[in-house]
Design goal:
Elements: H1 12-29, E1 44-49, H2 55-66, E2 70-75, H3 87-96, E3 101-106, H4 111-118, E4 125-131, H5 137-151, E5 158-162, H6 169-180, E6 184-188, E7 204-206, E8 218-221, H7 237-244, H8 248-251, E9 259-261, H9 274-277, H10 284-303
Parallel strand pairs: 1-2, 1-3, 3-4, 5-6, 5-8, 6-7, 8-9
Helix pairs in contact: 1-5, 1-10, 2-10, 5-6, 5-10
Length: 310
Amino acid sequence: MRHLLSTEGLAAPDATAVLDTADTLKQTLLGREVKKLPTLRGRTVVTLFYENSTRTRVSFEVAGKWMSADVINVSASSSSVGKGESLRDTALTLSAAGADCVIIRHPASGAAHRLAEWLEEDGTQVVNAGDGTHEHPTQALLDAATLRERLGDVSGRRIGIVGDLLHSRVARSNVHLLRTLGAEVTLIAPPTLVPTGIEHWGAEVRHELDPELPKLDAVMLLRVQAERMHGGFFPSAREYSIAYGLNEKRLAKLPEHAVVLHPGPMLRGMEIAPSVADSPRAAITQQVGNGVHVRMAVLYHLLAGEELTA
């Protein structure tokens, strides 16, 4: 396939190739006063976001510009979507206007796949920047890049993913990718935040955090997505923090080498204590930095290099 829509089915050699390219790009740009490569000169990249975003949108824009692509940002609130234009018509408009790649974030699961189907004949490539509660493949790739930097390798490591599994596209993409790269994944959440069919993800599911901490090489905390919740999934923010928040006492239960991740934005004091978020054990800002290089690598493989197979 010519798109990056999912980590499910992404072959290990292709995922590793993206991570290796990201490492190469990072080293190439290291120490440069002007961070510019001519790799995608003449290419047009469009970010099409129907949901709010800081990290993903900015890092894709920076990635494109550092590779000399022309980057155009389109938000639903300021486009013809506000006048009732369909996603299909918006996509065809962008393709007709000369977009080589459309990066889409959309509240509907499967939106990126539909977009890729509509643009298949036009040759426009599509990157899924998050579709509903389905997937967020570049987030999983940047998380894997961060784990490789901190732990040396992903294979054989045990990764705990904690929190709102029900609404998390980050969790789904990470489970698929981390297992493909040889990691063992443990999912930890209250029963009310565990989706139906999670047994097919191929990961262990636990409901208590503390017994798992000493076994983990990394713990990834998920944002509690209140905007997707209709009804009570836990008694209160305080109760959630007591049961699943990563505080200093829980941090001490992790092995000394273990790393703390969070896709952001963080709910400090609920999902993670401020002192833990700002500690040397946390790689949260490192994830953001790696996100730029990983997204540069994805654009390179789609627009200038070898095609991905999923």
